């Protein structure tokens, strides 16, 4: 059964399962969900814990042996399994494990994100039918203020709107830093309300932006944020060609999707067919609404100019050209001749 993180605690109490699978790339949230499962296991009498780091070369028969072996120290055991990847051997072992689960064991499996295509496979559905599968999604820009307020509320704290905005700006993209700053604010706060002055004094700038943040901002039409991210990436030493490659890939993807839409398919159908999922569905659909084939072609031409500038074939400022590309990608109204509107 697939569940959301906020359902995990209740589902564990309601439904006894041999396997709980936590999947996601946000390390803090994966860790906290796994901690919740471990706490539940201790409360249910799984007093022994066996940690298995299943790296390259791991013999997956060992998992089945561990499942069937008697514990020397306790009646019930939590098997804490952490594979580096779910390959064919892992899939076969997990399916075999669930075909004959030991009622005295609970298997906790933590992995990175499982792609949508894999979740449609027979092996995954066979596992999911007998387990709790919890996907951990990253906290995006729109969700961050609510997440921070909830986190502070758990510590008995409230926060002013301007202080919340500054706090989100300083920890954006770095949830581990966000959790640490909330703990720091709990310690230094003199009352129950966090003020702007306290955030200015106590919270460091922990913003962590990636090229994926940049492309998301462009797709979502958030020009100010996109340019801010580009400045951060430049300051952190990111290579212009690497950034250009990701932006160009997004533009070519939009071009192909717009071509599909010109044949009568809806934006939602096209997005699903191209395996866009998660929070990028809404961003991509928005980009398909504000762009057209001419605007994309104009942006690809600007990307070509950036490429030639990076390679020294044109005498221009690389970062200025990249900024222009980002500006017009996020807001095609700024293209010469308002191409996106014609």
Describe the structure.
The protein has helices spanning 8-14, 27-43, 61-68, 88-99, 116-119, 122-128, 144-154, 161-171, 175-188, 196-202, 211-219, 223-235, 240-261, 267-273, 280-290, 293-310, 318-330; strands spanning 2-3, 19-24, 48-54, 77-83, 105-111, 131-136, 158-159, 193-194. The chain has 342 residues and is α/β, with parallel strands linked by helices. Strand 4 (77-83), helix 4 (88-99) and strand 5 form a beta-alpha-beta unit. It is globular, with a radius of gyration of 24 Å.
CATH topology of the largest domain: Rossmann fold
Number of beta-strand segments: 8
> What best-fitting shape do the alpha-carbon axes yield?
globular
Note poorly predicted spans: none
CATH class of the largest domain: Alpha Beta
Q: What does the main sheet amount to?
A: 6 strands, parallel
Q: Helix- and strand-based class?
A: alpha/beta
Strand content: 5-15%
If strands are numbered along the chain, what order do they take across the biggest sheet?
Answer: 1-6-2-5-4-3
Number of contiguous helices = 17
Which sequence of SSEs, written as H and E, runs from N to C? EHEHEHEHEHHEHEHHEHHHHHHHH
Overall tally of structural domains: 3
- CATH superfamily membership of the largest domain: P-loop containing nucleotide triphosphate hydrolases
Share of helix among residues? 55-70%
Query: What's the gyration radius in Å?
Result: 24 Å
Give the mean pLDDT.
88
Provide the CATH architecture of the largest domain: 3-Layer(aba) Sandwich
State the separation between the terminal residues, measured CA to CA: 47 Å
